Amino acid sequence: MNRYQQPHWQEEMKLKVDFNNMMKGFAGPVEGFSKEDIDALAVKISEAHQNMKEKRAAGEMDWRKLPFEQADVIKDILETAQELRTWCENFVVLGIGGSALGPLAVQTALNHLHYNELATEKRGGPRLYVLDNVDPERVAALFDVIDPKKTVFNVISKSGSTSETMAQFMIVYQLLRDKLGNTYAKNMIATTDAEKGNLIKIAQEEGYKTFIIPQGVGGRFSELCPVGLLPAAVCGIDITELLAGAAYMDQLCEEADVYRNPAYIRSTLQYLAMERGKNVSVMMPYTDALKYFADWYAQLWAESLGKRKSLTGEEVFVGQTPVKALGTTDQHSQVQLYVEGPFDKVVTFLGVSRYRQEVAIPKVFNHIPGISFLGGHSLGDLITAEQMATEYALMKAHRLNMTIILPEINAFTIGQLIQLLEIETAFTGELLNINAFDQPGVEEGKNATYALLGRPGYEAKKQELEGRPEKKKEFII
Ligand SMILES: O=P(O)(O)OC[C@H]1O[C@](O)(CO)[C@@H](O)[C@@H]1O
Questions:
Q1: pLDDT by 10s per residue, the chain, length 477
Q2: Per the residue annotation, which of 377, 398, 446, 462 is the catalytic one?
Q3: Nearest CA to ligand 1 atom 2
Q4: Catalytic residue chosen out of the listed positions 164, 223, 241, 303
C-alpha cells in the first residue's frame, strides 16, 4: 500500500493553504475577494474543470499520471541509481529551464543544504551539479572541480535540440572521448523524448543509457518523470515518497468544488487578482530549502500563462510576472516595495511548521535590551515570527497575500507542493482561456539563435529576421 493511502500520514503531512487577506472575512483589513466574487465565476470554473478533464482524456496533461503510472520506469531509475552510487562521485545535469529547475529545487529541498560540500562518506552518494547555463566561465570552472572519469553526465532535453544543452553535451562528449576513449558511454545518460530531436538518435547510436520523457509531459511539468526522479534517486532522495505526496495532492485536486480543491481555489483567487490588475506574483519561501522552488515556479507560471493569444485566437496579452524572493533575506531587499509600492502584487509565502533542525539563540548580552529579547528563542522561532510579521505588514497595507504551509519539508510534502502548483497553473490557464502548455514566445528566440549561429536553414531564418538591426559590439570607452 502506498503511503498516500494511509489516512494518518495524509492528515499529519497535508499541506495547508492560509488565505491571509485574499478572502474577505478570513482575516485582517481586507482588500481580498468575497464568496460572491468567487461564486460569480461558477460557470467559468465548472467549464475549466470540464476542459481539464477533456485534456486529460486526450493525453494532453499526462504529467498528472506520473505519480500513478510509471512502475517500470521507477524500477529502472532505482536500479540505475543504485549502480551509479557505487562508483560515481559527481552527477552533472546538462539541461536548462524545465530540464534543470526541478532537479535543482528538489535537491535543495531534500538534501543537506551544504550537500556538495560534505565529504563523500557523509553524503553517501555523488555530488549534484546542475549546469543550466552556457556561461563559459561556469562551464570551465566545473571541469576544475570534477574528475570526468568519476562523473556521470545526464543530458536532459525534451526537444532534444536546445542549443545550450546541445552545446554542453558536445563539449562533454569530446572531453569524455579524449579521457576515456571508447568506454565513455557509461558516463553519459540521456533523458529525452522517445522520437523527437537529435538527442535520442545520438543516444541510441552511441549506446547511452536512456530515459524517456513521456508524451503529454512538457518540460516545466516534468519534474516527476525521469527528468527529476533520476537525479533525485542518484542523490539518495526517496522518490517513492515524492510520488506518493504528488499522488495524494492529485487526488485532492480531483474535486470539482472550488472550495474543496486547493489548486482551484488558489487559482481562482489569482485569476480574480489578475482581473484587478495584480500583474505580479511573488513566491517567497521562508526557508532556504525552498529557495529554488521559487525559480522552478517562476518558469512554470511565466511560460505557462504569459500569452498573447487566447484559445480562440483573440489577442489577450495575459499573464502575471513571477518574482522570486526568500524570507527573511528579501525582507531587507524587496519587502519595502511590496508594502508601500504599487498595488500590483499577490504574494505567496511558503511557510514551514517544523524546521528539520533547530538552532538555539543563547541567552547572552542580557544587559542590552535591543538584542537580549532574542536569547532563549530558536532561529525557527525567529524566522516564523518574521514571516508572520511580514504577512501582517502586508495585510495592514491592504496587500494581497496567502501562505502555503508545509508541516515539514520531506519528500511527501515536496511531492504535494509540486503537484499543487502544477495543477494550479494548468487550471489558471483554463480560466484565462489560453494554452498553458506551449511557449511560442520562447521558440521565436530559440529559432533566432539557430539563425544567428548559421545552422542549416539559416538562410530561411535570416529572412525572417530581416529588418532587425544587426547587433554590433559597441564599446563606450
Ligand atoms: O527540455 P528542452 O527541450 O531542452 O527545453 C528546455 C526549456 O526550453 C524551453 O523550451 C523554452 O525556454 C522550456 O519550455 C524548456 O523547459
A1: 344 455 556 778 899 999 888 886 555 445 789 999 999 999 999 999 999 999 999 999 999 999 999 999 999 999 999 999 999 999 999 999 999 999 999 999 999 999 999 988 888 899 999 999 999 999 999 999 999 999 999 999 999 999 999 999 999 999 999 999 999 999 999 999 999 999 999 999 999 999 999 999 999 999 999 999 999 999 999 999 999 999 999 999 999 999 999 999 999 999 999 999 999 999 999 999 999 999 999 999 999 999 999 999 999 999 999 999 999 999 999 999 999 999 999 999 999 999 999 999 999 999 999 999 999 999 999 999 999 999 999 999 999 999 999 999 999 999 999 999 999 999 999 999 999 999 999 887 777 777 777 655 555 555 655 555 555 555 544
A2: 446
A3: 157
A4: 303
Active site residue 303: yes
Write down the residue that cell numbers 543530458 correspond to. 155
- For 63, 73, 78, 304, the CA distances from 437, given in Å and listed in that order, are 11, 24, 29, 6
Domains detected in the chain:
7-40+242-432 (3.40.50.10490), 64-237 (3.40.50.10490)
In the residue annotation, 291 being an active-site residue is answered as: no
In sequence order, the 6+-apart residues with CB closer than 8 A to the CB of 457 are 450, 451
Q: Kindly provide the residue ranges of all beta strands, DSSP E only, lying in 251-380, ordered along the sequence.
A: 280-285, 307-309, 315-318, 321-324, 345-352
Please give the grid coordinates belonging to residue 159: 526537444
Is residue 117 annotated as part of the catalytic site, yes or no?
Answer: no
Contact assessment for residue 250 and residue 423, using Cβ atoms and an 8 Å cutoff: yes
Residues 6+ apart with CB under 8 A from 250: 64, 67, 68, 419, 423
Residue indicated by cell numbers 572531453 = 175
Q: Which one of 158, 193, 447 would you pick to mutate in the ligand 1 pocket, going by the greatest count of ligand atoms within 8 A of its CB?
A: 158
Ligand 1 centroid distance, CA of 214 (Å): 15
Ligand 1 binding pocket, CB closer than 6 Å: 96-99, 157-159, 162, 165, 219-220, 303, 439, 442
Determine which residue's CA is closest to atom 4 belonging to ligand 1.
157
The complex scores an ipTM of 0.98
